[in-house]
Amino acid sequence: MKILAVDTATEACSAALLVGDKQYARWEEAPRDHTRKILPMVQAVLDEAGLSLDQLDAIAFGRGPGSFTGVRIGISVAQGLAFGAGVPLIGISTLAAMAQGVHRQEGATRVLSAIDARMNEVYFGRYELQGDCMALVGEEVVSDPALLASEFGADAVLPGNWSAVGTGFETYGEVLGTMAETLVPSQQVRFPAALDMLPLARSAWLAGEAVAVEQASPVYLRDKVTWKKLPGRE
């Protein structure tokens, strides 16, 4: 199995390649520089593995949620590559990728992922390990942090230990920290990485979830994606 993954949905930019049981990856925190960096990263992992695009089985991409501009760059690059290579696409949640990263690097089996969505909101998802992949429990949402935390009141606080990852917890940690009995911030993961999309993409491929290029779509969570941008923000 040969799957390429690309992600530009947040401040991080990354590409990774799965070839059988081998993985190749590039990652860099590079705000506002994704368009210049992503294709060289793709070429680097292909060169390292000695593959060309037309040898791939599928291309995975960070479908969001995240920066509107970043998500659009990611899906556009993935569609262009997939169209040229004649392979299908697999959309992977950025929230799930972060949870997968905490599992890979810290051994977490229960993770709360939250990305700062600006406008006093967060993108949020709850994940638990199933097999070797982090699986979504419930739905991914965009919400006011206080409203989200209120859903986990005294009678609904998540029992046991949970890991917390993402800029949403960095910005609203005091509010969101009440959601679980014990909430431990990740020490190694801040943004999603294409490397952590590979096991999720492999699982999706085996489940027959790859789609044709023209059927691939981003996930913004917000109903409106053309809001007024604040100075210096996306």
From TrEMBL:
Gene Ontology CC, one term: cytosol
Name its GO BP terms in alphabetical order: tRNA threonylcarbamoyladenosine modification
Domain Gcp-like, chain residue ranges per copy: 28-175
Q: What is its main location?
A: cytoplasm
Please give the superkingdom of this protein's source: Bacteria
User: Which keywords does UniProt give here?
Assistant: Cytoplasm, Transferase, tRNA processing
UniProt KW Cytoplasm keyword:
yes
Where found? Cytoplasm
* Pfam families xref list: TsaD
GO terms assigned for molecular function: transferase activity
Q: Give the protein family.
A: Belongs to the KAE1 / TsaD family. TsaB subfamily.
For this entry, the protein name equals: tRNA threonylcarbamoyladenosine biosynthesis protein TsaB
**Taxonomy-wise, where does this protein's organism fall, top ranks first?**
Bacteria, Pseudomonadati, Pseudomonadota, Gammaproteobacteria, Aeromonadales
